[in-house]
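[step 3/7] fold_predict: job queued, chain A
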Amino acid sequence: MSTQTKTKRPNNTLLELIFNIAIPSIILMKLSGDEYLGSMYALVIALFFPLGYGLYDLIKNRSLNFIALLGFLSTLLTGGIGLFELDVEWLAIKEAAIPLVIGLVVLISGFWGKPLIAKILLNPLLFNLDLIYQTLSNKGKTEEFKAKIQRANHLLSVTFVFSATMNYLLAKWIVVSPAGTTQFNEELGEMTMLSYPVIAIPSTIMLIAIMFYVVKSVMKLTSLKLEEVLHAE
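[step 4/7] structure written:
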């Protein structure tokens, strides 16, 4: 039990913001000039922080998360576009492709009968699942609950479509300089910094709204109170 608790510790959001957004953005925007690191070394060092944090998280949790894997791949692709000086259009395509792939996986998971939203939100550490499922079965509401979860799963896929659209527009709007230049690095840092308030925060609000919808659906179908729905230690 203790081992499982260690491997399931939640990620440190502050550290994620520092290593994945703040430090890379500062390096790209402030240290890309020839008088400092230069465009190539600044890009390599900036990308080292999200890659390093991703590797640390992998070692700490001893498991490979699909979404984390896509994030790791996204960072490598960004580095490749900058270092090989590819057309910046590929950056916008890459920025849209990653969340679009995740949204597609979420959507397909529902058709497979294993909606990803259930694994994300219906956590036994948070919800009293045994009581919820037993009450749904007793009331004959299991199929109706599955339909609600399916709808929530569709809503989750929509949030990733939103993220893909905003990522593409943000990249097209900000990153306009040729890859491999100081201006490209500075614009990449600005895009990374803006991605949090413009994309991450709205997406998080949408996810909270979906969770609220699931909780309200559970309470309505089971007639259980909130304190009964939530898992009690």
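[step 5/7] annotate
Confidence is low (pLDDT under 50) at residues 1-8.
The CA atoms of residues 20 and 32 lie 18 Å apart.
exit 0
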